[in-house]
Amino acid sequence: MSALQSDAFVFFGATGDLAFKQVFPALNSLVNRDGLAIPIIGMGRAGWNIEKLRARARESLEHAGKYCAGDFEKLSAQMRYADGDYSDPETFRNLRKALGSAARPIHYLAIPPSMFGRVVQGLADSGCARDARVIVEKPFGRDLATAQALDETLHGVFPEGSIFRIDHYLGKEAVQNLLYFRFANTFLEPIWNRNYVKDVQITMAESFGVQGRGAFYEETGAIRDVVQNHLLQVISLLAMDPPGGHESDARQAEKLRLFRAMRPLDPREVVRGQFRGYRDEKGVKADSQVETFAALKLHIDTWRWADVPFYVRTGKCLPITATQVVVTLKCPPLPLFDGSERLPSNYFRLRLSPEVVIGAGALVKRSGEEMRGEPVELIVRHQTQSDKSPYERLLGDAVRGDTSLFTQDDCVEAAWRVVDPVLHDPLPVVPYDQGSWGPAEADKIIEGDDTWHNPVAERSAPC
């Protein structure tokens, strides 16, 4: 039986930065493109009123280049506003009144996790949580213990099936394409295992720094910010077994099995770096040991992936902004041609951002009389015409009750178990120059004589 659609959308933190950058544009698209026709109630603590909220929404759409008078009029007509202190029970009684006849609201907590407890309890005490859903933003805790405490808070009011943990990365078109590429192509499955795959590398590089958010980054660091969630999720899509059905529960079950098979990180196989100049950022401690770069080796203890290393690297102030996966295959068991030349192995290259590119590395014969080879790459550039943002996709799914692109509690806790050993009392960070590929110590993570595959700027396809 399909889930019932929520009949009201409430978002806490309506006056905040996330609402301005992501939520208002997503709601505008849902109303005008997807036909969302339910009350949209903004909650805030800024002493605003509905006129000021509508003005903020219009400013948001203008900033995003998505303002259209007719479209905004439809969004504006559905908007409501409720103001008050989240610690005051009267705030939630007013929300209950604003909901009117709505019987299945969805509450989006676009607020710091420290406020979740009081808001969830306020929703419960006022009756606003009855038959409702709740959306929570990452980070889902700071480590395993705090993630478990957060889940306990949420489960005290909402059943797991009504909790939607939003990780915008899972809503990206390129990440969805990765899942499709894995399971829609029969040529991959016979070789997608330890018998043929030598190693897997994932690089998420950013050419910029913390962009004035030093105080925020001091509380997170690269491992908490993107490894525990974004990059482990990418690995789960790369390495999971085929789901046993079309239902979202089947996909979640396979991802959970994969997460539980990931071996907790060994601190000896992790390098933490910090770009020179980070400590000069506002809000950053003068002796900060927060990492802006991390490189690690991950092991997955399944029959499919035993002994295949997964190398993960992410960092700020690197030479390029790009996210890329390279799956390197083993060499043929015996050389048939001149064995003196050192040629690269076959590989698959999956570029997730900023472009969506699929490349297959192969060897072909070099022109001439000798049977000597040269590497080539067969490239497919996937041009996506959809302008649906991750937040539009995810918020729309949550309103419809579709859990496919959301993370369950057991998956979140399993991911924290993987990274927990390197979060407490880690080794000091290693400095690296801005514009480099991180500290030289990261090269020691790679086994043998291989090296990291550094993403490069994509060349445009010929006309």
Task: Tag the structure with descriptive keywords.
globular; about 475 residues; alpha/beta; nine-stranded mixed sheet; 12 helices; 15 strands; about 20% strand; six-stranded parallel sheet; single chain
What does this structure look like?
With 463 residues, the protein is an alpha/beta fold. It is 32% helix and 20% strand. It has 12 helices and 15 strands. It has helices at residues 17-32, 50-63, 69-78, 89-99, 116-126, 144-155, 173-184, 214-218, 221-239, 248-261, 390-400, 409-419; strands at 8-12, 40-44, 79-83, 105-109, 133-137, 163-166, 197-205, 270-275, 293-298, 310-315, 322-329, 347-353, 357-365, 373-381, 430-432. The strands form 2 sheets. It has a 9-stranded mixed β-sheet with strand order 14-13-12-11-7-10-9-8-15, with helices on one face. A 6-stranded parallel β-sheet has the order 3-2-1-4-5-6, with helices on both faces. A hairpin with a 3-residue loop joins strand 12 and strand 13 (357-365). Helix 1 (17-32) crosses helix 2 and helix 4 packs across helix 5. The longest helix has 19 residues, at 221-239. It is globular and about 80 Å long. The protein starts with 7 loop residues before the first strand and ends in a 31-residue tail after the last strand. The mean pLDDT is 91.
